Amino acid sequence: MTTSARPFLNRRLTEFGTTIFAEMSALAVRTGSINLGQGFPDTDGPEEVREAAVRALRDGHGNQYPPGPGVPELRTAIAAHQLRRYGLSYDPDTEVLVTAGATEAIAAALLALLEPGDEVVAFEPYYDSYAAGIALAGGTRVPVTLRPHEGGFRLDLDELRAAVTDRTRLLLINTPHNPTGAVLTRAELTAVAELAVERDLLVVTDEVYEHLVFDDAEHVPLATLPGMRERTVTIGSAGKTFSFTGWKVGWVTSTPELVGAVRSVKQFLTYVSSGPFQYAVAEALSLPDSYFESFRADLCAKRDLLATGLAEAGFEVFRPAGTYFITTDVRPLGEKDGFAFCRALPERAGVVAIPNAVFYDNRDEGAPFVRFAFCKREEVLAEAVNRLRRL
Ligand SMILES: *Cc1c(COP(=O)(O)O)cnc(C)c1O
User: Fold this and answer.
1) Model's pTM, two decimal places?
2) Under 8 Å between Cβ of 225 and 340
3) Nearest-angstrom CA–CA distance, 53 and 81
4) pLDDT tens digit sequence for 17-45
5) Which residues contact 249 (CB under 8 A, 6 or more apart)?
6) Cα 89 to middle of ligand 1, angstroms
7) Mean pLDDT of all residues in 301-308
8) Parallel, antiparallel, or unpaired: how do β-strands 351-352 and 325-329 relate?
9) Which cofactor does it need (predicted)?
10) Are 176 and 323 in contact (CB under 8 A)?
């Protein structure tokens, strides 16, 4: 979206200007900086998965419109993955929907489930697309702010309960959480589930980082908790798990009624997408546990490299329990405004980061926080750490 589009843009979206990623990526190019802003890996995922895509394309699998709900091979693989990992049983024909990435799944779910004026309770800082998705659906977002507590960002359950009103239609949950790296504990999610049941709320849960949890953190899918399967729309994606963010293969798992509602919208957004890649992702989901374990170990080592470097450079570091991202506080460096800090950082140190304030309704809450992505090659991270020592 460009600034010049604004005179024509409808009122629901005028508050959303150019995304910060466009500005910061342009800045990175102009200054020759290392771009730790946007969260995409700088190496592709497994060779055999890439080959599977080539094979599908050559064999003519998915080159024409695939079926609306997704190709059967992928829907079966998604259902098998949910069962193998979490003991969640979904019917591939009626309870699984393939989407154009998690982004379309989020938008379609919000457009399907909200009436104008419905309130959506979501964690702040928000993932980039949530606020716009809620606005497109005519909903009203109600933030519950995650705040630093004992080295990480945590949810305040009392604040969550207080945010629910008679107008609340759904909870929009994200765990592992981008940008803070928080992974909600089983106890926290149990409280979320109890609230959803008590207030009869729908839940849309964005779990695209389900495989990216570190140390002793555990990813608990909300749908596994009592009373949740029938009210939860679970969203996953191949982009982050398999390091193919350009393929845009995501999915929804839920009841036939909820999946049907989301599909009703999805058919008029993209109808279908990513034909040959769907076959490749079906193979990727069936990779042995060793793939997921070594991917996690690799990212964990990268997290440690960047976290240590950032701490040595003087940042306060909130060590993430999951995701691709480290959120820092710039105040120990004598700074207080993450925006100004990120705009100056390329000239000062040749590194690009993202000010977390853009993910907040209340920008003051997010002012001192800055996010760095660590899904980059080790030598890139090592060079970034070197440069940050100049601060
Ligand atoms: C990257 C990301 C998405 C988007 O996933 P795609 O499959 O690329 O559309 C959604 N939610 C969160 C939290 C993300 O970080």
Assistant:
1) 0.97
2) no
3) 19
4) 777 888 898 999 999 999 999 889 999 99
5) 74, 98, 100, 101, 237, 238, 239, 273, 274, 277, 278, 281
6) 24
7) 98
8) unpaired
9) pyridoxal 5'-phosphate
10) yes
Identify whether the C-beta of residue 251 lies closer than 8 Å to the C-beta of residue 81: no
Cα 125 to Cα 18, 146, 149, 230: the distances in Å are 18, 7, 15, 27
Please provide the average confidence, as pLDDT, over all residues in the chain.
Answer: 96
- Give the model's pLDDT for residue 22: 87
Angle between helical axes of 275-285 and 72-86 (0-180°, round to 10): 30
The tokens of 54 are what? 């080539």
Residue 292 to residue 290: CA distance in whole angstroms: 6
CA proximity to 390, closest of 335, 345, 343, 329: 345
Complete DSSP assignment for 120-164:
EEEEESPPTTHHHHHHHTT-EEEEEE-EEETTEEE--HHHHHHH-
Q: End-to-end CA distance of the chain: give it in Å, rounded.
A: 33
Ligand 1 pocket at CB < 6 A: 101-103, 127, 174, 178, 206, 208, 237, 239-240, 245, 248, 250
Six token digits for residue 244: 């193919």
Asked whether 157 and 145 are in contact (CB, 8 A), the reply is no
Q: What are the structure tokens assigned to 173, written together?
A: 């949950």
Report the residue among 127, 213, 243 best suited for mutation to probe ligand 1: largest number of ligand atoms under 8 A from its CB.
127
Residue predicted with more confidence, 22 or 299 = 299
Position 120: which residue type? Answer: V
Q: How far is the CA of 335 from the centre of ligand 1 (A)?
A: 30
Give 218-276 pLDDT, tens digit per residue. Answer: 999 999 999 999 999 999 999 999 999 999 999 999 999 999 999 999 999 999 999 99
